[in-house]
Amino acid sequence: MDAGLTPAQAADALGLPMPGSGPYTPNLIRRHYLRRAVRVHPDKCRDPGAVQEFQRLKAAHDLLLSRAVGDAHSAAEAAASADLLSTFLRAMTGKLRDASLEAELASLGVYRPPEAFGVDLAIRFQGADGGRGPEESADAKAALRDVFAQQGVPWEEEEGGAKAGTGGDGREASNEDAAW
After folding, report:
1. Region Disordered: what ranges (predicted)?
2. DSSP string of 102-135?
3. Is residue 87 a contact partner of residue 101, using CB atoms and an 8 Å limit?
4. Which residues contact 180 (CB under 8 A, 6 or more apart)?
5. Domain architecture of the chain: domains with CATH
6. Average pLDDT over residues 127-156
7. In degrees, to the nearest 5, what angle opens at C-alpha 99 toward C-alphas 96 and 105?
8. How far is CA 116 from CA 82, 98, 112, 133, in A?
9. Average pLDDT across the chain, whole number
10. pLDDT, tens only, 23-61
11. What's the rounded Cα separation, in Å, for the pair 12 and 17?
12. From the centroid of its chain, how far is CA 51?
């Protein structure tokens, strides 16, 4: 099999119009392949070069078909991702209610994971502390303070909570400070 075929050579082998004249659909590729393959199939054609020509046609068919199916699959995947992202953003901004969110996710083929995964999707983020109690908020602040200390980022307490990323002189940290 000739694995070194370019798409242009593959199109020429199958008798397809040159690339750029339009996308090749799987049906078009198959139709052109079958027309040519019948003529050079080793069982039908006694020519000594028929086996190599048939293998070349098969390689051309496989190359163009994989590209055509791959392009269609990539486009469908991108559209599905965009739909899911749009749904996610509307849900995060509160523009979708629970019932409509469930229905929209189901229409996209996305379902909630089973409880066995350990993800409780019923928990909602509420308020500045994310719906956590004071003990959990204190634990989260302590954990963040430790991470900031390990990274060398200053941490200051404010009246309403913690303020990270300020210098010792009270100025906001610059982009250069935040990078390290």
Report:
1. 150-180
2. HHHHHHTT--PPPGGG---TT----TTTTT--HH
3. yes
4. 152
5. 7-79 (1.10.287.110), 135-179 (no CATH)
6. 71
7. 75
8. 28, 21, 11, 25
9. 73
10. 788 888 888 888 888 888 888 888 888 888 888 999 988
11. 7
12. 41
